[in-house]
Request: fold
Amino acid sequence: MARFEDFDRPPRERERDDYDDDPRPRRRRPEYGPLDKMFLDTAFPLLILFGFCCGMIALILSIVCLATSKHPEAKSRATTVAILSGIMIVFYNVLYFVAGVFGN
Reply:
């Protein structure tokens, strides 16, 4: 509320004074693990492509996220990436083995 003597000053200064008196509420940021933000902010189709294309790196990063994650959705996304990258690693190894056995 503006005081009587405040009418000598421009309105912007009066508004600034009114808001300066009130303490600003501080928001607490949720605590995330080291890789939670990566798995939460990345689109899900890109995470699936990451699991398919970068098998071993995706597996290692998703296991680290599973071990250190504090956010349930990040854990579920990391689980999906770990499963997909594990399947792709097994598939590539079987493919290399078959190609080695039946190749010239």
